[in-house]
Amino acid sequence: MRTDTGQVIHLADYRPTDFVLERVDLTFELDPVETKVESRLIFHRREGVDHSAPLVLDGDGLTMTSLLFDQIEMETDRYTATSDSLTIRDLPADSPFEVTVTTLLNPSANTQLMGLYRSNGIYCTQCEAEGFRRITYFPDRPDVLAPYTINIIADKESCPLLLSNGNFLGGAGYGEGKHFAAWFDPHPKPSYLFALVAGDLGVVEDTFTTMSGREVALKIYVEHGKESRATYAMDALKRSMKWDEEVFGREYDLDIFMVVAVSDFNFGAMENKGLNIFNDKYVLADPATATDQDYANIEAIIAHEYFHNWTGNRITCRDWFQLCLKEGLTVFRDHEFSADARSRAVKRIAEVRHLRSEQFTEDSGPLAHPVRPASYREINNFYTTTVYEKGSEVTRMISTILGRDGFKKGMDLYFERHDGEAATVEDFVKSFQDANGRDFKQFSLWYNQAGTPQVTVSTTHDARAKTLTVSLEQMIPATPGQPNKEPMHIPLRFALIDEDGSDVTASGITGGEVTGDVLHLTERSQTFVFAGIASRAVLSINRGFSAPVTIHFDQSADDKRLIALHDSDLFSRWQAITDLARPVLAHAATQAAKNEDVGGDARFVDVLLQIAGDETLEPAFRAQALSLPSEADIARELGSDTDPDAVHAGREAILKQIADAGSDLFGKLYTALADVTGPFSPDAENAGRRALKNTALGFIALSDATPAHAAEAFAKADNMTDLSQALTVLAHRFPDCEETKSALEAFESRFADNALVIDKWFAIQATIPGDGALDRVKALVANKHYIANNPNRVRSAIGSLAFSNPTGFNRADGAAYDFLAAQILEIDKRNPQLAARLLTSMRSWRQLEPVRAEKAKAALSTIARADKLSADVRDIVDRVLKS
Ligand code: B3K
Ligand code: ZN
Questions:
Q1: Atom of ligand 1 lying closest to residue 129 CA
Q2: pLDDT tens sequence across 558-594
Q3: Does the beta carbon of 305 sit less than 6 angstroms from any atom of ligand 1?
């Protein structure tokens, strides 16, 4: 484990390397405990660099066994090797030279899952961000690009498959039961995109013919026997390749594209050039074992990693501060792909829900940072929802400002100018600027200023003058290191609608820039006047969530109901429902905290049920409308001094009102939607029907207060979506009854051999609300199925408690915080990235009521006091505790 050096890296300190890397040749002799890596690197000194400057290569925990200079053993006084760096002196002034380094690795002992490791007997690698330096000494930074040749030697029987980046050159026997394979990747790439896989796997094969008529071999490798579960991923891959050609004009550039699924992986997947490595959770699916959400995730992540081939690989990042350049942009691309493949409005609603619950929470707490941070201590901690999801929203705003064609022109120019380069956010923005002749200076603040802008809106109508005045004011809250903020450029899509929901068009708009249906808010406060508005017109603003801001609009409940029921923009309808729900839920929480009757709001319930029963609306949308803001959302709304038990109790009371008032409707919906015959299809329409059906089941269980319906649904389910939903309703609503016990047992024994389904079994139990959750999770980590070295399993047990069980995690005695702290200290010894990620679950501790806040702080302090922490955990705990 790399312990913290306290070193802070600053964007302002960036400078290019002293030496240019021309070529990389790697030879791996694979062995479970003693793998030999020989790396031949050809460098030359960059023009203008001081002739005495040494070559400094990065390492991390390396053991070097030999070092050659131009093929001759290097004199020991010319270099200094430590486990973390290799410095070579007295190098030629301007001629190229060759350095050959040999290192020895133990892949079986690599529990960090960074560098070269083994997962279920498969050798695999993970190099982003700084894992390559755990394989060999190297200028391990994204602006060092070179073509790679890779030779892999391994035991033929246990490793029939030897894979790396690029195109296959050839292979042959190598004596003594060994064989070798050679790969060449002609596209210069940074080390973080290197990959190697070796082992014995099954394969699903297909081909794709690119727009210029080249045939590309497609291969998805999975464990033997799981091939049939990879066909959906293959379908998603082919659709992604086609979409990127049609929408972005981007063609694939090697003869082969491979995906390998492994079961031990720190996050979702990795876009290594030509050889994507995936957490098998995002590859494997069939109706019996995967939910509709799993299918949607597979589609999105396959697309995301594939799209990186252009946004990330062909054009990479100059340094890690530019991470959003590839991640934000690629998330935007995968969001658009899924929106085209599914219902755009429903997809947008899901994105915004996720953004609010994760990114807004991050942005309002101690871990807030700009989309492009200016400094970091541990780069692994910056793979955040701010860099990814807010980064995507910033890209979306560029497209909103420029329109579809202007955005396309800017993207084309970006690809044209920077293909084969390591670029910056400035390069990206400048492409849009130059292609469209529009200044993006103020807009660029989105990359540099953290915090969610708060936009206050008010309207006044003057019937005599026939004007509607819209006053807007923006405020960006202070965030760590950024007390004062400049006003930003906030593009707000809008419409004015009349009593029937029809659009009202103004005869003119003054007060600032308006392009089409977009108001450009650029000042701290700004007033737009709409002329020719004779009668009542309701403002629908931030349509489609055009800007990632929080709108404070004291709009009457009547206006909100009008939008909820009649707006032509489905996203706005959902937003209005949410806006109606928020005060109801906040009030309910406050009442519950005082042990007072929760009241509720019959008119709100009425709107909700009207939407739920509206056959003209797609079922997926109705399901979204019925799933109220989460407990975390309500807590954020309340701001400070929150009591998670009261938030839960208040929300439950409102849910019960909806369930009772809608019991007939939910009964009918359930019956109608359950009555589907024909083969299972994971498409969006069928998934939407299942979503609405299972939402109805949840309400039925709540109003009936008996497990009977859910138990029957569990018995009848013929797919994993229905089965896991029924089990969730049983476990969460009736945790102690016999039906739940036997359903959990049946589920466990039926899927005992399927790790991904057992993960669900863990997660469902770990998220049962209430004080009992901690004991349940303690029992789960002592269960025979628990695997402490498997990140998916750790996340499904401990992560589910910490991130997705507000009442269980925040029990008033603080015992769950102590449990998490102890687990983090243990996990940190094996896998610092996983430990640090789990610890971010405590980022909102200051918003808790004082008793819980004190206990959370004590648990965090225990972690902070530990004498040996990884750089990853040290960075998070220090920032979370800092006042
Ligand atoms: N680029 C990887 C993430 C790497 C995370 C390193 N800590 C996957 C992705 O975003 O596509
Ligand atoms: Zn990515």
A1: 6
A2: 999 999 999 999 999 999 999 999 999 999 999 999 9
A3: yes
**Residue having the nearest C-alpha atom to atom 3 of ligand 1:** 270
Ligand 2 centroid–CA 305 distance in Å is 6
Long-range contacts of 204-209 (CB under 8 A, 24+ apart): 204/230, 204/231, 204/234, 206/234, 206/238, 208/237, 208/238, 208/241, 208/242, 208/252, 208/257
**What contacts 88, CB < 8 A, 6 or more positions away?**
54, 55, 57, 69, 74, 78, 79, 99
Measuring CA to CA, how many Å separate 81 from each of 21, 61, 98? Answer: 20, 11, 17
How far away, in angstroms, is 329 Cα from ligand 1 center?
13
**Ligand 1 close to Cβ of residue 380 (< 6 A):** yes
Regarding the beta carbon of 300 and ligand 1, being less than 6 Å apart is answered no
* φ and ψ at residue 828, rounded to 5 degrees: -60, -30
For residue 6, what pLDDT is reported? 77
Predicted confidence band of residue 223 (pLDDT cuts 50, 70, 90): very high
496 bridge partner residues: 504, 539
* Nearest protein Cα to ligand 1, atom 9: 270
CA 43 to CA 34: how far, in whole Å?
28
- Least confident stretch, 309-318, 557-566, 592-601, 767-776: 592-601
Tokens standing for residue 528: 């737009």
Q: Give the ligand whose atoms come closest to the C-alpha of residue 130.
A: 1
The CA distance from 117 to 653, in Å, is: 50
Residue 659 has pLDDT above 90, yes or no: yes
CA–CA distances in Å: residue 77 to residues 42, 55, 73, 580, 737: 21, 14, 12, 73, 74
What does the alpha-carbon distance between residue 392 and residue 398 come to, in Å, rounded to a whole number?
10
Kindly give the distance from the C-alpha atom of residue 325 to the centroid of ligand 2, in angstroms, as a whole number: 10
Q: Which region, left, alpha or beta, applies to residue 203 given φ > 0 means left and ψ of -120 to 50 means alpha?
A: beta
Does the beta carbon of 686 sit less than 6 angstroms from any atom of ligand 1? no
Which domains does the chain show, CATH number per domain? 9-287 (2.60.40.1730), 316-448 (1.10.390.10), 454-547 (2.60.40.1840), 751-883 (1.25.50.10)
**Residues designated catalytic:** 305
Could you tell me the end-to-end alpha-carbon distance of the chain, in angstroms, rounded to an integer?
A: 28
CA–CA dist 401, 25 (Å, integer) = 46
Give the ligand 1 atom nearest the CA of 304: 11
- What's the rounded Cα separation, in Å, for the pair 433 and 544? 24
Question: Which residue among 271, 276, 325, 387 has the greatest number of ligand 1 atoms within 8 angstroms of its CB, and so is best to mutate?
Answer: 271
Average pLDDT of span 872-876: 98
Is pTM, for the whole model, over 0.85? Answer: yes
The DSSP call for residue 318 is: S
Atom 7 (ligand 1) nearest CA: 380
For residue 305, the ligand 1 atom closest to its alpha carbon is 11
Phi, psi values for residue 178, rounded to 5°:
-110, 165
**Ligand 2 centroid to residue 326 C-alpha, Å:** 7
Separation of 473 CA from ligand 1 center, angstroms? 37
Query: Ligand 1 pocket, 390 CB below 6 A?
Result: no
More confident residue, 212 or 883: 212
CA of 192 to the centre of ligand 1 (A): 10
Q: Which of 137, 114, 129 is nearest to 26 (CA)?
A: 137
Identify the band that residue 868 occupies on the pLDDT scale cut at 50, 70 and 90. Answer: very high
The C-alpha atoms of residue 565 and residue 812 are separated, in whole angstroms, by: 40
Q: What is the pLDDT of residue 471?
A: 98
pLDDT tens, position by position, 784-810:
999 999 999 999 999 999 999 999 999
Q: Which ligand has the nearest atom to the CA of 126?
A: 1
Give me the phi and psi of 235, to 5 degrees please.
-60, -45
Which atom belonging to ligand 1 lies closest to the Cα atom of 388?
10
271 lines ligand 1 (CB under 6 A): yes
What value does the mean pLDDT take over residues 533-537?
A: 93
